[in-house]
Amino acid sequence: MLSRAACSTSRRLVPALSVLGSRQKHSLPDLPYDYGALEPHINAQIMQLHHSKHHAAYVNNLNVAEEKYREALEKGELLEAIKRDFGSFAKFKEKLTAVSVGVQGSGWGWLGFNKEQGRLQIAACSNQDPLQGTTGLIPLLGIDVWEHAYYLQYKNVRPDYLKAIWNVINWENVTARYTACSK
């Protein structure tokens, strides 16, 4: 069980910041068949138009959107605060993951904002202990490490769950929370 002293220590974004930053551009896959293979039901001209124009536009627009989002994140206040307080996003991720793995029994790993210091901090809380009530930190991101959060899929391998959780964090929400409390 962690002591109280140990506790004091935006739209849905599916890929984590580090994944988004290292992602290769998407490309239009080749069809596994000729454009005319579906005739007479769907003619080759329609297939060619939909694949080479419409589908290609979706792929290109996805690449543009991801690039714009990555640029916005790189310029964002939250990412700058993470770099300032932890050195890099990778170091932040490593530290929050390690703290979360280290929770004995059930509890939470947290990214919180220390209003007095104007800095981000990582903390862990046992059981249902609230972050703000036990540490004074304003909660920005909480990672549930109670077994019910992962046991059916990851069994008792908490590190695998924590590796996967980074792919589903809602960074828009975390950013909004940071922006609201850091003013």
TrEMBL record:
GO molecular function: metal ion binding; superoxide dismutase activity
Residue sites binding Mn(2+) per the record: H50, D144, H148
Obligatory cofactor(s): Mn(2+)
PANTHER family: SUPEROXIDE DISMUTASE 2, SUPEROXIDE DISMUTASE [MN], MITOCHONDRIAL
Catalytic activities: 2 superoxide + 2 H(+) = H2O2 + O2
Organism in which the protein naturally occurs: Bos taurus (Bovine)
InterPro entries: Fe/Mn_Superoxide_Dismutase, Mn/Fe_SOD, Mn/Fe_SOD_BS, Mn/Fe_SOD_C, Mn/Fe_SOD_N_sf, SOD_C_sf
Manganese/iron superoxide dismutase C-terminal domain segment(s): 75-177
Quaternary organization: Homotetramer.
Source superkingdom: Eukaryota
KW Ribonucleoprotein (keyword) present: no
Similarity comment: Belongs to the iron/manganese superoxide dismutase family.
Keywords: Metal-binding, Oxidoreductase
GO cellular component terms listed in the entry, alphabetical order: mitochondrial matrix
Protein name, entry field: superoxide dismutase
Documented EC number(s): 1.15.1.1
Coiled coil: none
